[in-house]
Amino acid sequence: VWVGFGAPREFLRALEAGWFVPHFQPQFDARSLEIIGMEALARLHHPDYGVLGPASFLQSASDHGLVARLDEVILTGAIAAFDDWALSGLRVPRISVNVSASRLCDPCLIEKLERLSINMGFLAFEVLETISFEGEDSALIDAIERVKSLGIEIEIDDFGTGHASIVSLLELAPSRFKIDRRFTAPLEKSDTQRRLMAGLIAIGKALGIKVVAEGIESMVQADILRNLGCDYLQGFELCRPLSADGMAAFLAKYPSIRESRIAAREPAFASWL
Ligand code: G
Ligand code: MN
After folding, report:
1. pTM for the model
2. Atom of ligand 1 nearest to the CA of 235
């Protein structure tokens, strides 16, 4: 069993050896089922333990003060994959990368982003809702404004589970927020949960913020969310996270998958409302 990196230098060595790579999971338009974006997810390709998710390394990254470094490696890898797909004629409208508060407030971040001297219009940063957005954290708000001015969009991750208030949503004006999968899981069974989801979606509509529902694990959930007016969907049922190469293969065959999904889905049924 994997016990994590004991020392900062072990973690650094793994970073430098290229053990950390982004995997990718698409976000789909809830109506057309077209791919509208792609979330980059950090994975550790461990030579002994195989492919591991953040649960097995985020704590040691944080203990060793290396979360910002990890974020950087994943961002660079995600941009490289995006370029590779484009060279193969596989068009992806946008890539979303998870960004920690420490990375956002790293004074070098903006410099580095500017040095990439590329059009940032295809890039979004996912910021965890558990980061405090309240007034006292003006450094964070400033950092977010600078990131936005480079053309990078902001997405609030795990909406509904952390500290983000409606006031801070107004202040931040993100392009999208992502409703945590704990709100998606009970949709089929509970009328209360469907009404709650309708309310969360209504917050997005009121504020002009697009809504992404996470953790879609059945097409019934996808149908319910579409009928509730949710904009975008992400989850195992639509596509599991895949390596860059795996995603290239998925992208190539997706048009026909999409056709069969559209043909199979339920027509709008108001009874869910
Ligand atoms: O916090 P964040 O939303 O960034 O978490 C993303 C994680 O959620 C990824 O590691 C991914 O593997 C996982 N994930 C993606 N889709 C699903 C899903 O449909 N169900 C579950 N249980 N997890 C998912
Ligand atoms: Mn995320």
Report:
1. 0.93
2. 19
